[in-house]
Write a structure and sequence with these properties.
The complex is a heterodimer of chains A (about 100) and B (about 170). Chain A has about 100 residues and is an all-alpha fold. Chain A has helices at about 5-25, 30-50, 55-85. Chain A has a single domain, classed as Helix Hairpins (Orthogonal Bundle), CATH 1.10.287.3510. In chain A, helix 1 (about 5-25) runs antiparallel to helix 2 and helix 2 packs antiparallel against helix 3. Chain A is elongated, with a radius of gyration of 17 Å. By secondary structure, chain B is an all-alpha fold. Chain B is built from seven helices and no strands. Chain B has helices at about 1-25, 25-45, 50-75, 80-85, 90-110, 130-140, 145-165. Chain B is globular and about 55 Å long. Chain B starts with a helix and ends in a 5-residue tail after the last helix. Classes of the chains: A mainly alpha (about 100), B mainly alpha (about 170).
Amino acid sequence: MIPTEYYLFLGSGLFAIGVVGVLTRRNVLIILMSIELILNAVNINLMALSQYFKSVDGQVFAIFVITDAAAEAAVGLGLIIALFRNKETVNADEIDLLKW
Amino acid sequence: MIELATFITLSTVTLVSAILVITRRNAVHSVIWLIVTLFAVGGIYLLQHAEFLFAVQIILYVGGIMVLFLFVVMLVDIDVALKQARFARQWQAGLLTTILLLGLLGYALYNHGLGLNLPARPMASAPAQNTQAVGMALYQSYLLPVEIASMLLLVAMVGAVIMAKRKME
């Protein structure tokens, strides 16, 4: 039986790596992938606490998070395709139309 | 003992491949490493006896979302991105912020015994059939959220089609 804390530590580590990816990378595609990492960290936490409380509610919520990830990937990748068609770039630093 | 060894192996693979995801220059390599990460996370689900989530992770994440990612990465021009700098100008600030965040999370988890003040573990044993239990929960107590999730997927599908369409005539 692995202590629940270990899973929570793993979840925080994966979350932090995802946050670093979102904050530091310039490629929009890799920023989206980092968001997937963050969602997986959340799922690890949900799963660990679901096992801790001996209830499947956490697993049901993890399924909803995966549904959300699928919807987010579809819309995000559609946005990236539209962006690439209009601006010929996937570099987040060059997408500054809304900056004043 | 062997359970702990499996956990340590899986979490090492998860963290190392996650670091490789955010440091590779080529986006295709990032996708491949992300697939490794997702497999390792799936292994962690299996370790926690969540067989249904393991199957969902493999079929939906690795089989569906990652193929979609690979498709789009191949579609957009990667030769230009290969020559540009990998990290944004503010990468030091981002790294510092995250190290502070990780320190805070680690302090909260480590110093206060779980930090969350979890109540004592209930003694009720876990349901024997994981898939059956998840299905019961999904279609009985979570019926309305399931419907909302299906609506969300429909809206996302329509939105993605409209986004990627060439021109609205």
